[in-house]
Design brief:
It is a single chain. This protein starts with 8 loop residues before the first strand and ends with a helix. Helices cover 47% and strands 5% of the residues. Helix 2 links the parallel strand 2 (35-41) and strand 3 (78-81). The chain folds into three domains: 4-131, HUPs (Rossmann fold, 3-Layer(aba) Sandwich); 138-169 and 206-288, Serine Threonine Protein Phosphatase 5, Tetratricopeptide repeat; 298-470, Orthogonal Bundle (DNA Cyclobutane Dipyrimidine Photolyase, subunit A, domain 3), CATH 1.10.579.10. The chain is globular. The protein has 20 helices and five strands. It binds a DNA duplex (15 and 15 nucleotides) through residues 141-143, 145, 147-152, 231, 273, 277, 340-341, 344, 348, 383, 390-392, 394-399, 402-403, 462, 466, 470, 473.
Length: 476
DNA sequence: TTTTGAGTTGTTCGA
DNA sequence: GTCGAACAACTCAAA
């Protein structure tokens, strides 16, 4: 349809919705051809890992932001919905494009899509690294194997001396013909009926600008105290950059270098280690494509998980009668995010005290987290369940009362997200079932009425979990 | 090939 | 209240 001379280089945006430090974008520009930016919303290729509700909300706003910044360069973002392979092949054929540039994902379904796209176009698909610090294959043990323990993996990353310096956003972008585009508004990514997104709107600013503002605010105000503050859910001691990182509105490489312009110290080191945990999960998924579905440790296939739908629903809705768990689950529902310390507590509670399959928690997080990320979600749920990369899972059963008293000593976090306990005496805020009748009465709490009775006895749940874990060991 | 040290995030119990 | 030990062995990664 066009002459070859005008044929564009296609830039296929994936989990890298930014213009700065974008290797695929730069490579497309370097062809000297006009650039055709495309995003495809694909709900079929991912199978069960199609975008969840909270992620769809985020995506809508992130694409709005990306469209705006591309517009500043005189470029339009072509939006298409459907099967990635068919759409990219169709656009490539229409545009007579010989080169398609995209970010390299570690998600198994995305890798399958990439192979199919490469096979169905006449030109070349260039997969560039846009989401991880290093290419997964550049991190190997001395014997050439894949890492499965975090610490040696992190050491190997540090031995590489850090990722390359991020590149600036292009100042101009030459564009040409653009194909038909969907209207973002027609994709229905925002809540249709119940407006559950108001808490999300209050909490987040999706997009590259919002990501950079969050990062700079954290580095200026949060990083120094990060080592201590990050474990206290009532404060804002964490970076809250996870959704920005997941959608690639800021790259891990950019963050790495921003952090290293700050004074060295314990907090800086710990934050870098958190970035490397993200890198580790991506690496583990790269080498274990079954990670989201099947336990890494095969003996866990024999685990006798319980089937208890009412308990699962109570957990999802934050009605377990265990305050720190309920606060976390309600924070998740309201804001699309949960503090990391509390994620461990609620996950341990589901998998150990309730003995429900970790995949159920994984699926719920997938649907409700704005930072839902296949590698991190699967890797961390497996870690909590003990079937993943953790070497010492057996006796690691979080006691939600102790965790609450230790990390939410004043109960502020619980009070905020479980308002029916707002007036509870601090001594009993994490275990209201232990409170004397007059303390409950003074707080206006009626257990089993205004706030649930605990759905599981913590000591009994712990004992049951230990027995189940001992059982799969003896069977294997 | 064998050996050696280590492994994100915890809890409980008894002194 | 605080501290150290026990929890249970196993696998990983490097030497």
């Amino acid at each position: 349809m066009t002459t070859t001379a005008a044929a564009p280089a296609i830039l296929w945006f994936r989990d890298d919705l930014r213009l700065t430090d974008h290797a695929a974008l730069l490579a497309a520009i370097d062809t000297g051809r006009p650039v055709l930016p495309v995003f495809v919303l694909d709900d079929t290729s991912p199978g069960p890992w199609a975008l969840g509700g909270a992620s769809r909300w985020w995506l809508h706003h992130s694409l709005t932001a990306l469209r705006h910044s591309l517009g500043g360069l005189g470029a339009e973002l072509t939006l298409r919905r459907g099967d990635s392979v068919a759409i990219i092949a169709e656009i490539a054929a229409q545009a007579a494009a010989t080169d398609i540039f995209t970010g390299g994902s570690v998600d198994p379904w995305a890798r399958r899509v990439d192979r199919a796209v490469a096979a169905s176009i006449s030109g070349k698909l260039h997969r560039m690294r846009t989401t991880t610090l290093f290419h997964p294959d550049s991190l190997r043990t001395k014997s050439g194997g894949a890492f499965s323990v975090y610490t040696p993996f992190a050491d190997a990353c540090l031995a590489l001396g850090g990722p390359c310096v991020p590149s600036p956003a292009p100042a101009t972008l030459r564009t040409a013909w653009a194909p038909r585009s969907d209207r973002l508004e027609d994709w229905g990514l925002l809540p249709a009926k119940a407006d559950w997104a108001s808490g999300l709107r209050d909490t987040w600013t999706p997009g590259e600008t919002g990501a950079m503002e969050r990062a700079e605010a954290f580095l200026s105000h949060g990083l120094a105290g990060y080592a201590d503050a990050r474990d206290r859910p009532a404060g804002d001691g964490t970076s809250m950059l996870s959704p920005h990182l997941h959608f690639g509105e800021i790259s891990a490489t950019q963050l790495w270098h921003m952090v290293h312009r700050r004074p060295p110290g314990e907090s800086r080191k710990i934050f870098i280690r958190e970035l490397l945990w993200r890198e580790f999960c991506a690496n583990v998924l790269w080498h274990n494509p079954g990670l989201p579905e099947a336990p890494l440790k095969p003996e866990f296939a024999k685990m006798l998980w319980r089937d208890d739908r009412p308990a699962l629903i109570a957990w999802q809705k934050g009605q377990t009668g265990t305050p720190i768990v309920d606060a976390g689950m309600r924070q998740l529902w309201r804001t699309g995010w949960m503090h990391n310390r509390v994620r461990m507590i609620v996950a341990s509670f589901l998998v150990k005290h309730l003995m429900l399959p970790w995949q159920h928690g994984e699926a719920w997080f997938w649907d409700t987290l704005v930072d839902a990320d296949l590698a991190n979600n699967a890797g961390n749920w497996q870690w909590v369940a003990g079937c993943g990369t953790d070497a010492a899972p057996f006796f690691r059963i979080f006691n939600p009362v102790l965790q609450g008293r230790k990390f939410d000593a004043g109960g502020d976090y619980v009070r905020h997200f479980v308002p029916e306990l707002a007036r509870m005496d601090t001594r009993y805020i994490h275990a209201p079932w232990e409170a004397p009748a007059d303390v409950l009465a003074n707080a206006g709490v009626i257990l089993g009425d205004t706030y649930p009775n605990p759905i599981v006895d913590l000591a009994a749940g712990r004992a049951r979990a230990l027995a189940a874990y001992a059982q799969i060991r003896s069977v294997s």
